[in-house]
Protein backbone atom coordinates (compact mmCIF):
# COMPACT_ATOMS: atom_id res chain seq x y z
CA UNK A 1 0.00 0.00 0.00
CA UNK A 2 2.82 2.31 0.88
CA UNK A 3 4.58 1.60 -2.44
CA UNK A 4 1.35 2.34 -4.35
CA UNK A 5 0.96 5.74 -2.58
CA UNK A 6 4.60 6.49 -3.17
CA UNK A 7 4.13 5.81 -6.91
CA UNK A 8 1.07 8.06 -7.07
CA UNK A 9 2.99 10.87 -5.31
CA UNK A 10 5.86 10.53 -7.79
CA UNK A 11 3.40 10.81 -10.71
CA UNK A 12 1.85 13.90 -9.09
CA UNK A 13 5.27 15.46 -8.62
CA UNK A 14 6.16 14.81 -12.24
CA UNK A 15 2.82 16.28 -13.38
CA UNK A 16 3.39 19.37 -11.23
CA UNK A 17 6.90 19.68 -12.60
CA UNK A 18 5.66 19.39 -16.19
CA UNK A 19 2.94 21.95 -15.46
CA UNK A 20 5.51 24.34 -14.03
CA UNK A 21 7.74 23.87 -17.06
CA UNK A 22 4.78 24.56 -19.36
CA UNK A 23 3.84 27.69 -17.40
CA UNK A 24 7.44 28.93 -17.56
CA UNK A 25 7.63 28.20 -21.29
CA UNK A 26 4.32 29.99 -21.89
CA UNK A 27 5.49 32.96 -19.83
CA UNK A 28 8.70 33.15 -21.86
CA UNK A 29 6.70 33.00 -25.10
CA UNK A 30 4.24 35.63 -23.79
CA UNK A 31 7.08 37.94 -22.75
CA UNK A 32 8.69 37.48 -26.14
CA UNK A 33 5.42 38.28 -27.91
CA UNK A 34 4.82 41.32 -25.70
CA UNK A 35 8.35 42.48 -26.36
CA UNK A 36 7.80 42.08 -30.09
CA UNK A 37 4.32 43.61 -30.07
CA UNK A 38 5.14 46.40 -27.64
CA UNK A 39 6.52 48.75 -30.35
CA UNK A 40 3.38 48.14 -32.44
CA UNK A 41 1.12 48.92 -29.49
CA UNK A 42 3.13 52.03 -28.69
CA UNK A 43 2.98 53.14 -32.32
CA UNK A 44 -0.78 52.57 -32.43
CA UNK A 45 -1.28 54.38 -29.12
CA UNK A 46 0.69 57.49 -30.13
CA UNK A 47 -0.88 57.49 -33.62
CA UNK A 48 -4.42 57.51 -32.24
CA UNK A 49 -3.51 60.04 -29.54
CA UNK A 50 -2.01 62.50 -32.05
CA UNK A 51 -4.91 61.92 -34.46
CA UNK A 52 -7.52 62.76 -31.81
CA UNK A 53 -5.76 65.79 -30.33
CA UNK A 54 -5.09 67.31 -33.77
CA UNK A 55 -8.51 66.57 -35.29
CA UNK A 56 -9.55 69.65 -37.32
CA UNK A 57 -12.77 71.60 -37.43
CA UNK A 58 -14.91 70.77 -40.48
CA UNK A 59 -17.37 73.25 -41.99
CA UNK A 60 -19.33 71.27 -44.60
CA UNK A 61 -21.95 73.83 -45.53
CA UNK A 62 -23.03 75.48 -48.77
CA UNK A 63 -22.77 79.26 -48.86
CA UNK A 64 -22.38 82.22 -51.21
CA UNK A 65 -19.29 83.69 -52.82
CA UNK A 66 -16.55 82.61 -55.22
CA UNK A 67 -15.11 79.75 -53.13
CA UNK A 68 -18.34 78.44 -51.65
CA UNK A 69 -19.88 78.36 -55.13
CA UNK A 70 -17.28 76.05 -56.65
CA UNK A 71 -17.30 73.91 -53.50
CA UNK A 72 -21.04 73.34 -53.91
CA UNK A 73 -20.63 72.72 -57.66
CA UNK A 74 -17.95 70.04 -57.26
CA UNK A 75 -19.98 68.21 -54.62
CA UNK A 76 -23.22 68.50 -56.59
CA UNK A 77 -21.67 67.18 -59.79
CA UNK A 78 -19.94 64.29 -58.01
CA UNK A 79 -23.26 63.25 -56.49
CA UNK A 80 -25.42 63.85 -59.59
CA UNK A 81 -23.42 64.13 -62.81
CA UNK A 82 -19.93 62.58 -62.84
CA UNK A 83 -19.89 62.64 -66.66
CA UNK A 84 -20.03 66.46 -66.65
CA UNK A 85 -17.59 66.59 -63.73
CA UNK A 86 -15.01 64.71 -65.82
CA UNK A 87 -15.27 67.38 -68.54
CA UNK A 88 -14.39 70.30 -66.27
CA UNK A 89 -11.10 72.13 -66.76
CA UNK A 90 -10.57 73.54 -63.29
CA UNK A 91 -7.82 73.66 -60.63
CA UNK A 92 -9.90 71.25 -58.53
CA UNK A 93 -10.59 67.93 -60.18
CA UNK A 94 -13.06 65.07 -60.19
CA UNK A 95 -12.26 64.24 -56.55
CA UNK A 96 -12.15 67.87 -55.39
CA UNK A 97 -15.03 67.21 -52.99
CA UNK A 98 -12.59 65.21 -50.82
CA UNK A 99 -10.88 68.47 -49.89
CA UNK A 100 -14.08 70.53 -49.61
CA UNK A 101 -17.00 68.20 -48.78
CA UNK A 102 -20.55 69.43 -48.18
CA UNK A 103 -23.68 67.68 -46.95
CA UNK A 104 -24.93 66.20 -50.22
CA UNK A 105 -25.48 62.48 -50.54
CA UNK A 106 -22.62 60.61 -48.83
CA UNK A 107 -19.98 63.15 -49.88
CA UNK A 108 -19.04 64.33 -46.41
CA UNK A 109 -18.91 60.81 -44.96
CA UNK A 110 -16.64 59.63 -47.80
CA UNK A 111 -14.38 62.66 -47.36
CA UNK A 112 -14.24 62.19 -43.58
CA UNK A 113 -13.23 58.54 -43.92
CA UNK A 114 -10.67 59.43 -46.60
CA UNK A 115 -9.15 62.18 -44.45
CA UNK A 116 -9.05 59.97 -41.34
CA UNK A 117 -7.36 57.07 -43.13
CA UNK A 118 -4.76 59.40 -44.68
CA UNK A 119 -4.00 61.13 -41.40
CA UNK A 120 -3.65 57.89 -39.42
CA UNK A 121 -1.44 56.57 -42.22
CA UNK A 122 0.71 59.71 -42.18
CA UNK A 123 1.17 59.76 -38.39
CA UNK A 124 2.01 56.04 -38.17
CA UNK A 125 4.47 56.23 -41.09
CA UNK A 126 6.09 59.39 -39.71
CA UNK A 127 6.60 57.88 -36.25
CA UNK A 128 7.82 54.55 -37.66
CA UNK A 129 10.36 55.89 -40.17
CA UNK A 130 11.66 58.95 -38.30
CA UNK A 131 14.46 58.76 -35.71
CA UNK A 132 14.99 55.22 -34.37
CA UNK A 133 16.99 56.54 -31.45
CA UNK A 134 15.02 56.19 -28.18
CA UNK A 135 16.33 59.58 -27.07
CA UNK A 136 14.49 61.31 -29.94
CA UNK A 137 11.26 59.28 -30.09
CA UNK A 138 9.41 61.76 -27.88
CA UNK A 139 10.72 64.58 -30.09
CA UNK A 140 9.38 62.70 -33.16
CA UNK A 141 5.95 62.29 -31.52
CA UNK A 142 5.91 65.99 -30.60
CA UNK A 143 7.00 66.93 -34.13
CA UNK A 144 4.21 64.78 -35.61
CA UNK A 145 1.65 66.48 -33.36
CA UNK A 146 2.88 69.97 -34.28
CA UNK A 147 2.83 69.34 -38.01
CA UNK A 148 -0.63 67.74 -37.78
CA UNK A 149 -2.00 70.98 -36.32
CA UNK A 150 -1.09 72.76 -39.58
CA UNK A 151 -1.65 69.95 -42.06
CA UNK A 152 -4.13 70.65 -44.89
CA UNK A 153 -4.98 67.78 -47.21
CA UNK A 154 -2.32 68.85 -49.76
CA UNK A 155 0.50 68.42 -47.26
CA UNK A 156 -1.01 65.28 -45.74
CA UNK A 157 -0.75 63.57 -49.13
CA UNK A 158 2.69 65.07 -49.81
CA UNK A 159 3.91 63.86 -46.41
CA UNK A 160 2.87 60.27 -47.07
CA UNK A 161 4.62 60.36 -50.44
CA UNK A 162 7.83 61.82 -48.96
CA UNK A 163 7.94 59.18 -46.19
CA UNK A 164 7.40 56.22 -48.52
CA UNK A 165 9.82 57.57 -51.12
CA UNK A 166 12.38 57.91 -48.31
CA UNK A 167 11.63 54.35 -47.10
CA UNK A 168 11.94 52.99 -50.64
CA UNK A 169 15.42 54.50 -51.05
CA UNK A 170 16.63 53.43 -47.60
CA UNK A 171 15.23 49.88 -47.70
CA UNK A 172 15.54 49.26 -51.47
CA UNK A 173 12.00 47.81 -51.32
CA UNK A 174 9.97 48.66 -54.44
CA UNK A 175 6.69 47.79 -52.70
CA UNK A 176 6.67 51.36 -51.33
CA UNK A 177 6.13 52.72 -54.84
CA UNK A 178 2.65 51.21 -55.21
CA UNK A 179 0.83 53.22 -52.51
CA UNK A 180 2.95 56.27 -53.32
CA UNK A 181 1.84 56.47 -56.95
CA UNK A 182 -1.78 55.65 -56.15
CA UNK A 183 -1.98 58.44 -53.59
CA UNK A 184 -0.09 60.88 -55.87
CA UNK A 185 -2.52 60.35 -58.75
CA UNK A 186 -5.51 60.52 -56.40
CA UNK A 187 -4.16 63.80 -55.02
CA UNK A 188 -3.81 65.22 -58.53
CA UNK A 189 -7.48 64.48 -59.16
CA UNK A 190 -8.38 66.36 -55.99
CA UNK A 191 -6.39 69.50 -56.81
CA UNK A 192 -3.77 70.29 -59.45
CA UNK A 193 -1.43 71.86 -56.88
CA UNK A 194 -1.17 68.50 -55.06
CA UNK A 195 0.30 67.01 -58.22
CA UNK A 196 2.75 69.92 -58.40
CA UNK A 197 4.02 68.95 -54.93
CA UNK A 198 3.76 65.16 -55.28
CA UNK A 199 5.30 64.26 -58.62
CA UNK A 200 8.57 66.21 -58.16
CA UNK A 201 9.10 64.15 -54.97
CA UNK A 202 8.61 60.95 -56.95
CA UNK A 203 10.92 62.11 -59.75
CA UNK A 204 13.61 63.00 -57.21
CA UNK A 205 13.14 59.62 -55.51
CA UNK A 206 13.88 57.83 -58.78
CA UNK A 207 16.99 59.95 -59.36
CA UNK A 208 18.29 59.44 -55.80
CA UNK A 209 17.62 55.71 -55.94
CA UNK A 210 19.59 55.40 -59.18
CA UNK A 211 22.59 57.43 -58.00
CA UNK A 212 22.74 55.50 -54.72
CA UNK A 213 22.59 51.98 -56.18
CA UNK A 214 23.63 52.49 -59.84
CA UNK A 215 21.34 49.67 -61.02
CA UNK A 216 20.03 50.39 -64.52
CA UNK A 217 17.50 47.55 -64.41
CA UNK A 218 16.03 48.90 -61.17
CA UNK A 219 15.67 52.40 -62.67
CA UNK A 220 13.85 51.00 -65.71
CA UNK A 221 11.55 49.00 -63.40
CA UNK A 222 10.75 52.11 -61.34
CA UNK A 223 10.02 54.25 -64.40
CA UNK A 224 7.78 51.57 -65.92
CA UNK A 225 5.94 51.00 -62.63
CA UNK A 226 5.46 54.76 -62.34
CA UNK A 227 4.04 55.19 -65.84
CA UNK A 228 1.77 52.15 -65.55
CA UNK A 229 0.31 53.20 -62.21
CA UNK A 230 -0.21 56.81 -63.31
CA UNK A 231 -2.02 55.78 -66.50
CA UNK A 232 -4.08 53.03 -64.86
CA UNK A 233 -5.14 55.27 -61.97
CA UNK A 234 -5.93 58.25 -64.23
CA UNK A 235 -7.87 56.04 -66.66
CA UNK A 236 -9.87 54.43 -63.85
CA UNK A 237 -10.87 57.80 -62.34
CA UNK A 238 -11.62 59.48 -65.69
CA UNK A 239 -13.33 56.47 -67.28
CA UNK A 240 -10.80 55.76 -70.03
CA UNK A 241 -7.19 56.15 -71.15
CA UNK A 242 -7.88 59.08 -73.48
CA UNK A 243 -9.81 61.17 -70.88
CA UNK A 244 -7.16 60.33 -68.27
CA UNK A 245 -4.33 61.45 -70.55
CA UNK A 246 -6.27 64.61 -71.50
CA UNK A 247 -6.77 65.44 -67.82
CA UNK A 248 -3.02 65.14 -67.13
CA UNK A 249 -2.16 67.49 -70.05
CA UNK A 250 -4.79 70.05 -69.02
CA UNK A 251 -3.51 70.02 -65.45
CA UNK A 252 0.00 70.76 -66.70
CA UNK A 253 -1.32 73.69 -68.75
CA UNK A 254 -3.36 75.01 -65.83
CA UNK A 255 -0.53 74.94 -63.31
CA UNK A 256 2.15 76.24 -65.68
CA UNK A 257 0.45 79.59 -66.25
CA UNK A 258 -1.70 80.11 -63.17
CA UNK A 259 0.53 81.90 -60.66
CA UNK A 260 2.26 84.16 -63.20
CA UNK A 261 -0.97 85.30 -64.88
CA UNK A 262 -2.71 85.97 -61.55
CA UNK A 263 0.23 87.55 -59.71
CA UNK A 264 -0.77 90.36 -57.32
CA UNK A 265 2.72 91.89 -56.80
CA UNK A 266 2.34 93.00 -53.16
CA UNK A 267 5.13 94.83 -51.33
CA UNK A 268 7.49 92.58 -49.39
CA UNK A 269 10.18 93.31 -46.83
CA UNK A 270 13.13 91.91 -48.76
CA UNK A 271 15.47 92.15 -45.79
CA UNK A 272 13.25 89.65 -44.01
CA UNK A 273 12.76 87.53 -47.14
CA UNK A 274 16.52 87.50 -47.81
CA UNK A 275 17.06 86.20 -44.28
CA UNK A 276 14.39 83.57 -44.90
CA UNK A 277 16.14 82.36 -48.06
CA UNK A 278 19.55 82.41 -46.34
CA UNK A 279 18.31 80.08 -43.58
CA UNK A 280 17.21 77.66 -46.29
CA UNK A 281 20.51 77.76 -48.17
CA UNK A 282 22.58 76.87 -45.10
CA UNK A 283 20.63 73.62 -44.51
CA UNK A 284 23.15 71.34 -46.30
CA UNK A 285 25.90 72.65 -44.02
CA UNK A 286 23.84 71.89 -40.90
CA UNK A 287 23.33 68.18 -41.54
CA UNK A 288 25.49 65.25 -42.50
CA UNK A 289 24.65 61.64 -43.19
CA UNK A 290 22.65 59.69 -45.76
CA UNK A 291 19.25 60.02 -44.07
CA UNK A 292 19.50 63.80 -43.79
CA UNK A 293 20.79 64.16 -47.34
CA UNK A 294 18.03 61.97 -48.74
CA UNK A 295 15.30 63.92 -46.95
CA UNK A 296 16.73 67.30 -48.03
CA UNK A 297 16.83 66.21 -51.67
CA UNK A 298 13.27 64.82 -51.55
CA UNK A 299 11.95 68.12 -50.19
CA UNK A 300 13.94 70.55 -52.33
CA UNK A 301 11.68 70.48 -55.44
CA UNK A 302 8.34 70.80 -53.59
CA UNK A 303 9.94 73.61 -51.52
CA UNK A 304 10.83 75.48 -54.71
CA UNK A 305 7.35 74.82 -56.16
CA UNK A 306 5.65 76.08 -52.99
CA UNK A 307 7.89 79.17 -52.89
CA UNK A 308 7.08 80.02 -56.53
CA UNK A 309 3.39 79.22 -56.03
CA UNK A 310 3.10 81.25 -52.84
CA UNK A 311 5.34 84.25 -53.47
CA UNK A 312 4.07 84.84 -57.02
CA UNK A 313 0.35 84.64 -56.33
CA UNK A 314 0.71 85.77 -52.70
CA UNK A 315 -2.89 86.13 -51.59
CA UNK A 316 -4.15 85.03 -48.16
CA UNK A 317 -4.56 81.38 -49.16
CA UNK A 318 -1.31 80.89 -51.05
CA UNK A 319 0.90 82.77 -48.58
CA UNK A 320 -0.61 80.85 -45.66
CA UNK A 321 -0.06 77.58 -47.55
CA UNK A 322 3.59 78.58 -47.98
CA UNK A 323 3.94 79.06 -44.21
CA UNK A 324 2.26 75.70 -43.52
CA UNK A 325 4.57 74.02 -46.02
CA UNK A 326 7.75 75.35 -44.43
CA UNK A 327 6.57 74.27 -40.96
CA UNK A 328 6.06 70.83 -42.55
CA UNK A 329 9.48 71.12 -44.26
CA UNK A 330 11.41 71.85 -41.05
CA UNK A 331 9.58 69.22 -38.99
CA UNK A 332 10.64 66.56 -41.52
CA UNK A 333 14.25 67.73 -41.50
CA UNK A 334 14.39 67.71 -37.70
CA UNK A 335 12.74 64.30 -37.35
CA UNK A 336 14.86 62.57 -40.02
CA UNK A 337 18.23 64.15 -39.18
CA UNK A 338 20.93 62.00 -37.60
CA UNK A 339 22.58 64.90 -35.79
CA UNK A 340 22.35 68.61 -34.92
CA UNK A 341 18.60 68.34 -34.29
CA UNK A 342 18.52 71.21 -31.79
CA UNK A 343 20.59 73.43 -34.06
CA UNK A 344 18.24 72.69 -36.97
CA UNK A 345 15.28 73.48 -34.67
CA UNK A 346 16.79 76.89 -33.83
CA UNK A 347 17.30 77.72 -37.53
CA UNK A 348 13.74 76.52 -38.26
CA UNK A 349 12.28 78.93 -35.68
CA UNK A 350 14.21 81.84 -37.20
CA UNK A 351 13.12 80.83 -40.72
CA UNK A 352 9.40 80.67 -39.88
CA UNK A 353 9.61 83.89 -37.82
CA UNK A 354 11.05 85.75 -40.83
CA UNK A 355 8.27 84.44 -43.08
CA UNK A 356 5.61 85.46 -40.55
CA UNK A 357 7.29 88.85 -40.09
CA UNK A 358 7.04 89.57 -43.80
CA UNK A 359 3.35 88.63 -43.73
CA UNK A 360 2.60 91.88 -41.87
CA UNK A 361 4.10 93.92 -44.72
CA UNK A 362 1.89 92.42 -47.41
CA UNK A 363 -0.87 94.83 -48.34
CA UNK A 364 -3.47 92.36 -49.63
CA UNK A 365 -6.66 92.56 -47.52
CA UNK A 366 -8.05 89.64 -45.48
CA UNK A 367 -4.68 88.55 -44.08
CA UNK A 368 -5.12 86.79 -40.78
CA UNK A 369 -2.59 85.54 -38.21
CA UNK A 370 -1.76 81.83 -38.28
CA UNK A 371 -4.04 80.19 -35.74
CA UNK A 372 -3.21 77.10 -33.66
CA UNK A 373 -6.31 75.03 -32.97
CA UNK A 374 -5.95 72.84 -29.85
CA UNK A 375 -9.60 71.76 -29.70
CA UNK A 376 -9.06 68.46 -31.49
CA UNK A 377 -10.97 66.30 -28.99
CA UNK A 378 -13.93 68.66 -29.07
CA UNK A 379 -13.97 68.65 -32.88
CA UNK A 380 -13.79 64.83 -32.94
CA UNK A 381 -16.68 64.56 -30.49
CA UNK A 382 -18.77 67.10 -32.41
CA UNK A 383 -18.03 65.70 -35.88
CA UNK A 384 -17.66 61.93 -35.41
CA UNK A 385 -19.31 60.89 -32.16
CA UNK A 386 -22.30 63.17 -32.79
CA UNK A 387 -22.29 62.68 -36.56
CA UNK A 388 -26.05 62.80 -37.24
CA UNK A 389 -26.48 65.94 -35.17
CA UNK A 390 -23.46 67.51 -36.90
CA UNK A 391 -24.85 66.76 -40.39
CA UNK A 392 -28.27 68.12 -39.43
CA UNK A 393 -26.73 71.37 -38.13
CA UNK A 394 -24.63 71.73 -41.28
CA UNK A 395 -27.69 71.26 -43.51
CA UNK A 396 -29.58 73.94 -41.57
CA UNK A 397 -26.63 76.31 -41.85
CA UNK A 398 -26.49 75.71 -45.61
CA UNK A 399 -30.17 76.58 -45.99
CA UNK A 400 -29.71 79.74 -43.95
CA UNK A 401 -26.66 80.82 -45.99
CA UNK A 402 -28.51 80.23 -49.27
CA UNK A 403 -31.30 82.62 -48.26
CA UNK A 404 -29.10 85.43 -49.63
CA UNK A 405 -29.48 84.00 -53.14
CA UNK A 406 -33.23 83.36 -53.22
CA UNK A 407 -34.96 84.80 -56.31
CA UNK A 408 -38.38 86.44 -56.49
CA UNK A 409 -41.30 84.41 -57.80
CA UNK A 410 -41.57 86.63 -60.89
CA UNK A 411 -37.97 85.84 -61.83
CA UNK A 412 -38.46 82.11 -61.23
CA UNK A 413 -41.60 82.20 -63.36
CA UNK A 414 -39.64 83.64 -66.32
CA UNK A 415 -36.89 81.00 -66.00
CA UNK A 416 -39.21 78.07 -65.38
CA UNK A 417 -37.56 74.72 -66.13
CA UNK A 418 -35.23 76.12 -68.80
CA UNK A 419 -31.50 75.51 -68.66
CA UNK A 420 -29.54 78.31 -66.98
CA UNK A 421 -25.97 79.15 -65.98
CA UNK A 422 -24.56 81.91 -63.76
CA UNK A 423 -21.79 84.35 -64.69
CA UNK A 424 -19.16 85.09 -63.48
CA UNK A 425 -19.23 82.80 -60.40
CA UNK A 426 -22.15 83.04 -57.92
CA UNK A 427 -23.42 79.49 -58.43
CA UNK A 428 -25.31 79.57 -55.11
CA UNK A 429 -28.33 80.83 -57.12
CA UNK A 430 -28.68 77.28 -58.48
CA UNK A 431 -29.19 75.30 -55.22
CA UNK A 432 -31.00 78.20 -53.54
CA UNK A 433 -33.72 78.14 -56.22
CA UNK A 434 -33.50 74.54 -57.53
CA UNK A 435 -32.74 75.80 -61.05
CA UNK A 436 -32.02 73.58 -64.05
CA UNK A 437 -28.27 74.20 -64.17
CA UNK A 438 -26.19 73.68 -67.32
CA UNK A 439 -22.56 74.06 -66.19
CA UNK A 440 -19.78 75.20 -68.53
CA UNK A 441 -16.43 73.43 -68.76
CA UNK A 442 -14.58 76.26 -66.99
CA UNK A 443 -17.23 76.25 -64.18
CA UNK A 444 -16.70 79.94 -63.25
CA UNK A 445 -15.21 83.14 -64.70
CA UNK A 446 -11.52 83.81 -64.21
CA UNK A 447 -9.69 82.36 -67.22
CA UNK A 448 -6.06 83.48 -67.49
CA UNK A 449 -5.16 82.13 -70.95
CA UNK A 450 -6.68 82.21 -74.43
CA UNK A 451 -7.02 78.41 -74.64
CA UNK A 452 -8.97 78.37 -71.36
CA UNK A 453 -11.13 81.34 -72.40
CA UNK A 454 -11.90 79.49 -75.67
CA UNK A 455 -13.41 76.59 -73.71
CA UNK A 456 -15.74 78.95 -71.84
CA UNK A 457 -16.64 80.78 -75.04
CA UNK A 458 -17.53 77.49 -76.76
CA UNK A 459 -20.10 76.75 -74.06
CA UNK A 460 -21.79 80.08 -74.85
CA UNK A 461 -21.96 79.43 -78.59
CA UNK A 462 -25.44 79.31 -80.08
CA UNK A 463 -25.66 75.52 -80.11
CA UNK A 464 -24.26 74.96 -76.61
CA UNK A 465 -25.47 78.00 -74.65
CA UNK A 466 -28.20 77.52 -72.00
CA UNK A 467 -31.53 79.29 -72.53
CA UNK A 468 -30.87 81.78 -69.71
CA UNK A 469 -27.80 83.36 -68.16
CA UNK A 470 -27.88 85.10 -64.80
CA UNK A 471 -25.11 87.72 -64.85
CA UNK A 472 -24.73 88.91 -61.26
CA UNK A 473 -23.09 92.17 -60.25
CA UNK A 474 -19.84 92.44 -58.29
CA UNK A 475 -18.78 95.88 -57.07
CA UNK A 476 -15.81 97.25 -59.01
CA UNK A 477 -13.36 100.03 -58.10
CA UNK A 478 -15.38 102.56 -60.15
CA UNK A 479 -18.56 101.94 -58.11
CA UNK A 480 -20.06 99.89 -60.91
CA UNK A 481 -21.25 96.28 -60.91
CA UNK A 482 -18.66 94.70 -63.20
CA UNK A 483 -16.01 93.66 -60.70
CA UNK A 484 -14.02 90.48 -61.14
CA UNK A 485 -11.46 88.38 -59.24
CA UNK A 486 -8.71 90.37 -57.46
CA UNK A 487 -10.34 93.71 -58.27
CA UNK A 488 -10.08 93.29 -62.06
CA UNK A 489 -12.72 94.61 -64.46
CA UNK A 490 -15.11 91.89 -65.62
CA UNK A 491 -15.38 93.03 -69.25
CA UNK A 492 -11.58 92.81 -69.58
CA UNK A 493 -11.59 89.21 -68.32
CA UNK A 494 -12.37 86.32 -70.68
CA UNK A 495 -12.87 88.49 -73.80
CA UNK A 496 -13.88 85.56 -76.05
CA UNK A 497 -16.50 84.41 -73.55
CA UNK A 498 -17.80 87.94 -72.98
CA UNK A 499 -18.18 88.55 -76.73
CA UNK A 500 -20.16 85.32 -77.15
CA UNK A 501 -22.44 86.31 -74.26
CA UNK A 502 -23.08 89.77 -75.78
CA UNK A 503 -23.61 88.21 -79.19
CA UNK A 504 -26.05 85.46 -78.24
CA UNK A 505 -28.01 86.95 -75.33
CA UNK A 506 -30.31 89.91 -74.79
CA UNK A 507 -31.56 91.51 -71.60
CA UNK A 508 -34.73 89.96 -70.21
CA UNK A 509 -34.77 91.43 -66.69
CA UNK A 510 -32.56 93.67 -64.53
CA UNK A 511 -32.48 94.10 -60.73
CA UNK A 512 -30.00 95.73 -58.36
CA UNK A 513 -28.19 92.39 -57.99
CA UNK A 514 -28.15 90.85 -61.46
CA UNK A 515 -29.21 90.88 -65.11
CA UNK A 516 -31.21 87.97 -66.46
CA UNK A 517 -30.20 87.36 -70.09
CA UNK A 518 -32.16 85.25 -72.59
CA UNK A 519 -30.69 83.52 -75.63
CA UNK A 520 -31.46 85.10 -79.02
CA UNK A 521 -32.41 83.37 -82.23
CA UNK A 522 -30.05 85.70 -84.17
CA UNK A 523 -26.70 87.35 -83.46
CA UNK A 524 -26.53 90.76 -81.78
CA UNK A 525 -23.13 91.69 -83.17
CA UNK A 526 -21.76 92.08 -86.67
CA UNK A 527 -19.07 89.75 -87.89
CA UNK A 528 -15.73 90.66 -86.34
CA UNK A 529 -13.15 92.30 -88.57
CA UNK A 530 -9.47 92.59 -87.69
CA UNK A 531 -7.96 96.03 -88.26
CA UNK A 532 -4.40 97.29 -88.21
CA UNK A 533 -1.95 95.70 -85.79
CA UNK A 534 -0.27 98.27 -83.54
CA UNK A 535 2.80 97.78 -81.37
CA UNK A 536 3.26 100.22 -78.47
CA UNK A 537 4.79 100.55 -75.01
CA UNK A 538 3.31 100.97 -71.54
CA UNK A 539 1.92 104.37 -70.43
CA UNK A 540 1.51 105.66 -73.99
CA UNK A 541 -1.75 106.79 -75.60
CA UNK A 542 -2.73 104.80 -78.68
CA UNK A 543 -4.54 106.55 -81.51
CA UNK A 544 -7.77 104.65 -82.21
CA UNK A 545 -9.70 104.76 -85.51
CA UNK A 546 -13.11 106.40 -85.80
CA UNK A 547 -15.77 104.07 -84.39
CA UNK A 548 -18.69 104.94 -86.79
CA UNK A 549 -21.06 103.56 -84.08
CA UNK A 550 -19.31 100.15 -84.19
CA UNK A 551 -17.51 98.50 -81.27
CA UNK A 552 -13.75 98.92 -81.58
Query: What is the CA-atom radius of gyration, in angstroms?
Result: 30 Å
**pLDDT below 50 for ≥5 consecutive residues: which ranges?**
19-23
Proportion of strand residues: under 5%
Let me know the largest β-sheet.
Answer: 5 strands, mixed
By secondary-structure content and strand pairing, the structural class works out as mainly alpha
- Terminal-residue CA separation: 129 Å
Characterize the overall form: globular
- The share of residues in helices is 55-70%
Tally of individual helices: 21
Q: Topology as H/E string? A: HHHHHHHHHHHHHHHHHHEHEHEHEE
User: How is the largest sheet built, in terms of strand order?
Assistant: 2-1-3-5-4
Strand tally: 5
Mean pLDDT: 83
Give a written overview of the molecule.
The protein has 552 residues and is mainly alpha-helical. Helix content is 62%, strand content 4%. The chain contains 21 helices and five strands. The chain has helices at 2-53, 66-80, 82-85, 107-129, 137-149, 153-171, 177-190, 192-213, 216-238, 241-261, 270-281, 283-286, 290-313, 316-336, 341-359, 376-385, 387-402, 409-415, 429-433, 450-458, 495-504, and strands at residues 419-423, 436-437, 468-472, 505-510, 514-519. The termini are far apart.
Amino acid sequence: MWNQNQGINKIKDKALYCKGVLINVNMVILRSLLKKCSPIYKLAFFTILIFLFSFPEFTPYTGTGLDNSYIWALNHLFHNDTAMLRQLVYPLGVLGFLKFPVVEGSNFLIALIFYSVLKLWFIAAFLYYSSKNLKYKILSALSAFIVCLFLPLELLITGIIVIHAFAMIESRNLIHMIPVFLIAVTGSFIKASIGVLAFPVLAMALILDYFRYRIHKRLIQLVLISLVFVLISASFIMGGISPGFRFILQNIRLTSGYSGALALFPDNNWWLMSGFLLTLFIIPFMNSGKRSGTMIMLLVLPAFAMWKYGITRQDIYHYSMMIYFFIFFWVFLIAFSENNKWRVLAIACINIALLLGNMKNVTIPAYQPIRIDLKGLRHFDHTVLKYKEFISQSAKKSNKELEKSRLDKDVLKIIGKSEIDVYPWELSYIPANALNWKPRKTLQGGSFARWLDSLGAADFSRSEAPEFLLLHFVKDRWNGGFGSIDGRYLLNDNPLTIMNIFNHYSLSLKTNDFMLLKKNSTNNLKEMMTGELLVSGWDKWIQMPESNSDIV
